[in-house]
Amino acid sequence: MDTRVPGLFGIEHPVIQGGMAWVADGRLAGAVSAAGGLGVVACGAAPLSWIEEQVAIARSLAPGAAVGANVMLMNPDVESIADLLVRLRVDVVTTGAGSPARFIERWKEAGIKVVPVVAQAALAARMERLGADAVIAEGCEAGGHIGEMSTMALVPQVCDAVSIPVIAAGGIADARGAAAARVLGAEGVQVGTRFLTVEECRVAEVYKDKVLRAKDSDTIVTGRVTGHPVRGLKNAWSRSMKSLERGVSDPHELEGMYAGSLRRAVEGDAEGGSFMAGQVAGLVKARGCAADVVSELSEGFAAGEASACAAASLLAGVREGGERRG
Amino acid sequence: MDTRVPGLFGIEHPVIQGGMAWVADGRLAGAVSAAGGLGVVACGAAPLSWIEEQVAIARSLAPGAAVGANVMLMNPDVESIADLLVRLRVDVVTTGAGSPARFIERWKEAGIKVVPVVAQAALAARMERLGADAVIAEGCEAGGHIGEMSTMALVPQVCDAVSIPVIAAGGIADARGAAAARVLGAEGVQVGTRFLTVEECRVAEVYKDKVLRAKDSDTIVTGRVTGHPVRGLKNAWSRSMKSLERGVSDPHELEGMYAGSLRRAVEGDAEGGSFMAGQVAGLVKARGCAADVVSELSEGFAAGEASACAAASLLAGVREGGERRG
Predict the structure, then answer these.
(1) Which residue among B160, B178, B307 places its CB closest to the CB of A179?
(2) Measuring CA to CA, which residue among B78, B77, B35, B70 is closest to residue B54?
(3) Torsions phi, psi of B39, nearest 5?
(4) What's the CA gap between B218 and B195, in Å, rounded?
């Protein structure tokens, strides 16, 4: 079967680094791209000058390699960021927290591949109609901002809904997850949590330690009441948010409490920060470097090929039989 | 690699039918067991006489084949049900909604295999220490009562935590899901939603139609406020429960609203029932019979073997490297 992601992005391995705001800077993105994956600078709410600087750092670390940027569409400065990325001609833009509809044409004209993160099959199909080059189907086991569907249920349904490549995200931290994603029909994987502990990642030591020590049940979802659920590790901050959320009548009252919480975590505030991480934090037991992660996940993904072909062929047989019968 | 589930249960295919209360009767369980899977009669809150009758029906439909029963541990009659199952000498007991600790010895002495459903690795390890023969690791994409972790994140972490066989549940409805479960390390799959539409399933036609028409995003979780979250299809009942849950100060006030809601769905009350189903409802496009489902999922599971071995071997290599280094 065809795995179109490397050819589409001009990369060697179909491993995309998640666009984690405050975390994914030029050093991390450059290390991933230099290792043959797709490094992604997270624009988050950063100033334009920071974004430009980090893309330059990534490119200097990975000369000639593709480099991507992630755009958070709720950002009030999204228009200027969209234009900056056109000027910088990054290779790929991944988008989160909304629909990138109004930017797709602009980016594609600049030769940028556009890859929205989706959490539902219908949205994936709409993105394909609007010209997206691929979609990232992200399950709710992921860290950070999440949807409702799990990777296991979402990826095959998105694959059935679109013809463009589907990249699986959420729940992938080792060879088993990467191989399973391939078997579900994905043509690439996006990984966030596993990159938090690598040496090129800028987060404070306390953040890395929390991930390395996490058990499977150590994540919690805050922010459901605001309509913007976020998964992170349990700590004093997330426990107190959960308890405030239970009693609140107007969720907007809480907005000030979420503000700045991720930045505090990245900078090492153990009890006052929001340590975004996925349910696979419990599988992350090593630090290592970005190149180790790219190679481990790329090999895992390739290990899924044999079973992906076998499962796809069984499915086609079942569907053909169904059509013949009725 | 070894897939111990068929030998352990005395069945041909490592496909276990979910113990869906009000749904999984002797006719469905018998059809699954006759096809070489493990059919499971759901004891739910049914009278002892009904349970005895349904086990007899299942056995008559599948002479000589293994038949299981599911016990909901919150049931106030659980002691009498536990003793009845000893007397009936069912082959396997699966348990949900609590810890079966106090029954394990009794059941094992009667030659019954004990298989708790778990939603966390630590609970799986505890069940192994208490003598469980296998565990079902069920992700939150499943229908009915759910935990917090997804199948993709949960199954590998449970596999790392126990030596007994792990059966994956949640998010599995076709060959891709079954193969992916194998790749994640499972030695069998438990499937619920996909059995709802088969001809041997007793649910009303309107229930089957709702599953067949469902899109990926058509499930919703009610009951989070009560500490007993349940996934089902969106309808008037689930929407009104969600809105009541938002405003309630004492969740116990709502208990009467949940009571009887599943039974109403099974009997065909389109707007007033709780149509429990998983996020894979959107993948279920066929009716067919139980034997079709067992054979499709069993072939899918077998298709996962090649990649499961490859991924396990990569993982072992990475871990050995990590130990050498550190």
Answers:
(1) B307
(2) B70
(3) -80, 140
(4) 18
CA distance B176 to chain A (A): 5
* pTM for this entry: 0.97
CA of A254 vs chain B CAs: smallest distance (Å):
16
User: Hey, is the C-beta of A199 within 8 angstroms of any chain B C-beta?
Assistant: no
Beta bridge partners of A169: A138, A190
Each residue of A246-280: pLDDT tens digit? 877 787 888 888 889 999 999 999 999 999 999 99
User: What residue has token string 């009560």?
Assistant: B226
Using an 8 Å CB-CB cutoff, list chain B residues near A251: none
Single-letter amino acid code for the residue at A20:
M
pLDDT tens for A284-311 read: 999 999 999 999 999 999 999 999 999 9
Is the CB of residue A227 less than 8 Å away from at least one CB of chain B?
A: no
Q: Give the residue among A81, A41, A86 at the shortest CA–CA distance from A60.
A: A41
**Residues 135-194 of chain A whose Cβ lies under 8 A from any Cβ of chain B:** 139-141, 148-154, 156-158, 160, 170-172, 174-185
* Token pair belonging to B178: 């079954």
State yes or no: pLDDT of A139 exceeds 60: yes
- Chain A stretch 79-98, residues whose beta carbon is closer than 8 A to a beta carbon of chain B: none
For residue B91, which of B79, B104, B108 has the smallest C-alpha distance?
Answer: B108
ipTM: 0.96
The SS3 of residue B199 is coil
Cβ contact, residue pair B307, A307, below 8 Å: yes
Shortest Cα distance from A77 to chain B (angstroms)? 31
User: B176 vs A315: CB contact, 8 Å cut-off?
Assistant: yes
Asked if A150 and B139 come within 8 Å (Cβ–Cβ), the reply is: yes
Could you tell me the two tokens for B244? 């009541």
3 state SS of A147 = coil
CA distances from residue B89 to B17, B55, B72, B78, B139 in whole angstroms, order as listed: 19, 10, 18, 16, 29
d(CA B58, CA B32): 9
B314 interfaces chain A, CB cutoff of 8 Å: yes
- Supply the DSSP string of B125-166, one letter for each residue: HHHHHTT-S-EEEE-TTSSEE--SS-HHHHHHHHHHH-SS-E
Supply A245's token pair. Answer: 């959320």
What is the rounded CA–CA span in Å between residue A45 and residue A22?
8
